[in-house]
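Researcher: Good morning. I'm working through a list of sequences from a screen, and I'd like to move beyond sequence-only analysis. For each chain I'm collecting a predicted structure so we can compare shapes side by side. This is the next one on the list. No need for commentary yet; just the structure.
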Amino acid sequence: MIAVRGAGGIEGGAHIDSSSHGDNSDPWGGSNSSTVGGSGSLFPYFDLNVPRNVTTAVGQSAFLHCRVEHLGDKAVSWIRKRDLHILTAGVLTYTSDQRFQVIRPDRSGNWTLLIRFPQKRDSGIYECQVNTEPKMSLAFWLNVIESKAHIQGAQEVYVRRGSSVSLQCVISQAPHALGTVFWYRGAAPIVTTADRQLQIDTSWTDNQQLISRLYIRAALPAHTGNYSCVPTTAEPASVEGKKVRSERV
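Model: Good morning. Structure tokens for this chain:
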């Protein structure tokens, strides 16, 4: 919380709560084939130039892209490795969990597994399989993380009227596709174009942390309030607040 204090006492109060919600290596095995058969036609084979180590945040849709060339009359299935559950076969979904769906544009070799609203329990290995003999498979690793955010420093901040103050929100374990970070005072989103005393800067660090900074150039009593930093994929339970109090003259 930031508060601006003056002779007349402290005006208002606020609390800030912040939360958040590939590579092409083959560490999990899998088989591929591009052999020319006796008839001169190509057998199916996987395009390996796709991300196979995919990270997403809790609640943020995940896409596993499997591309099969020269499929012919064969079929593509998606399997969850931990329990060998068939998720999709062709364009049909073979699970009661409707979060799973295969996306395949017409006449395309792309068989993309879509996982809506993923949870941490969905992390693990998924296999794209083709029903050749022997069976072909290509493994993908999905890592679902719960992004966590906090505003650094003391829970309450007191500043003199006219002084500057900076709040820094750090979002750890954040994929680059995290999205936008919003700042709020109370329940109202902060719009910097409406208050020229405010500025927001967001940047990435070398260790994959997302940093969002809120600057108040010259604090006024009107800036007293409960500030929060909320990434678009934040879990409400992980939101942390900070109170800023500004002095009156």
